[in-house]
Amino acid sequence: MLQIREKVENNMLWKINADTCSLWWDNLSDKGALANFFPDHHHNRHTTVSEYMINGGWDLNKLAIDFEDRMTNIIDNIVIGDLSLEDFILWKPSNDGLYTNLSSFQVNRDKKQEDVSLGSLWHNCIPFKVSFLAWRACLSKLPFNENLSRFAINEDTDCSYCSIATRDSLQHTFIEGEAAKHLWNHFGSPLVIRHTNWPIRRLLKHWRATTTTNSVHKLIVNIVPLAICWEIWRMWTACRYGDQNKFYIRKMEYHISWTINAAITKAFPTCCFSWPWPNLCRDVELWRPKTVHSHVVAAFSKSIQCSSHNIAEAMAAREGIHQCLHLGFRKFQIELDSQIIVNMLKARDTNNLRLKGIILSSVKAMNQANVDVTYCYREANHVADLLAKNAAGSGNSFQYCLMPNFLETLKAHFTWIIGSYQA
Ligand SMILES: [Zn+2]
After folding, report:
1. How far is the CA of 238 from the centre of ligand 1 (A)?
2. Which terminus of the chain is less hemmed in, N or C, by CB atoms within 10 Å?
3. For 192-236, what is each residue's pLDDT tens digit?
4. Is residue 423 very low, low, confident or very high in pLDDT (cuts 50, 70, 90)?
């Protein structure tokens, strides 16, 4: 235990509620234990937090007498919670602050550098299995001949679709085969994306790099290639392992269209585009967010330092609720683009230790009004999207605008207080 003590303690963050923590040995400030910071400082090893607290806060006078300024500043910045609750430990590597063996393993394993291009395969508007398949294809983790032969399984099979017999391979099935070429051209041509026999990873990157005119257009160039790969995979497995003996190209077109339509409807429920595909592409390129005629009361965006998107989302929600109450609203709706936070606010509690404090204080504020919480894809709320990008681009800026100046800036008319935090 002593051998791993240092590793473990650095990942344990103590949250002070009751005052029983050790001031010296517990990691209270997220920077490590004070004893490690100031090894030369003469101190009593058994000092507890309670000795330096007064009326539920830090006793700054006593701290100033006993410690130098730098130490006093660090201690003063440690937040003290609800005194009626017990102290608790937050396990830093996990998302919810609870200890798991998996998160512990992740801390200790040797990690490869993260590949950004693979991260963009995941999208909350399409089923997980579709993204997962694209990820496996990019890493060549699919049971094609070239991979099976590495395990001494030699089943040299030919492609089930092409008129000229061709050996089956990942590159042939997904990119170079007649069926694949047809689908890439069928869905790519109306978007002016020409098909080229590149490796699948480069081809997906090429689609994503296409210049887009609006958020629906962007969504489409992101998900169409994933939908095509998924459909090719479905047909291929049906031929290889099922009783099908050829690719049904019209059926594939139909299924891909269905996946695209479902994703657009999920992300932009108020938009309505008409098929067939070339018409939809034309309309999407010309699409502009609708102007809603009502009033902006206020808007804000903040760039903050926090460890996850969900914390930023929860903080934005809490601030939005407080702003509404402050301005005298007693019945309002809040839209969030994190289903997790929506669920927590609806349930009015969570067992996620990182978010519990923010959620409970939001709920406390919500109890003063009639609040409806709903999920909304961020790009579908044009103003919120603009504010989030603004916060990300402008660093630590803070904006808070009241009518009517903001109307000119946004060139659109919206109701509500619109807020955004960018972590
Ligand atoms: Zn073929």
Report:
1. 15
2. N
3. 888 888 899 999 999 988 888 888 888 999 999 999 999 999 999
4. very low
Cα–Cα distance measured from residue 336 to residue 315, given in angstroms and rounded to the nearest whole number: 11
Distance CA 346, CA 372 (A): 9
**Per-residue confidence (pLDDT) for residue 284, from 0 to 100:** 85
Give, as residue ranges, everything with CB less than 5 Å from ion ligand 1. Answer: 159, 161-162, 166, 177
CA of 164 to the centre of ligand 1 (A): 8
Which range, of 132-141, 253-262, 273-282, 412-421, averages the lowest pLDDT? 412-421
What spacing in Å lies between the alpha carbon of 181 and ligand 1's midpoint?
10
End-to-end Cα, the chain, rounded Å: 36
> Nearest 5°: phi and psi at 12?
-105, 120
Which pLDDT does position 419 carry in this prediction?
53
Tell me where in the chain the CATH 3.30.420.10 domain(s) lie.
Answer: 298-422
Query: Are the C-beta atoms of 243 and 207 separated by less than 8 Å?
Result: no
Distances (CA, A) of 372 to 107, 298, 366, 380: 39, 19, 9, 18
Pairing of strands 331-336, 370-375: parallel
Between the CA of 58 and the centroid of ligand 1 the distance, in Å, is 72
Cα(170) to centroid(ligand 1), Å: 10
One-letter amino acid at 256 equals I
The candidate with the shortest Cα–Cα distance to 119, out of 142, 135, 106, is 135
Express each pLDDT in 264-279 by its tens digit. Answer: 888 887 778 888 899 9
Count how many Cα atoms sit within 13 Å of the Cα of residue 156 in the half-sphere of its side chain.
Answer: 3
Going by pLDDT thresholds of 50, 70 and 90, the confidence category of residue 290 is: low
Q: What is the CATH T-level fold of the domain 298-422, as seen in this structure?
A: Nucleotidyltransferase; domain 5 (3.30.420)
| CA-wise closest residue to 259 among 229, 287, 286, 300 | 229
CA 366 centroid distance within chain: 25
Give the position of tokens 């606010």: 345
Peptide bond before residue 289 is cis, with ω within 30 degrees of 0: no
Q: Which residue from 201, 92, 78, 90 is spatially nearest to 139, judged by alpha carbons?
A: 201
337 vs 325: CA distance, rounded Å: 21
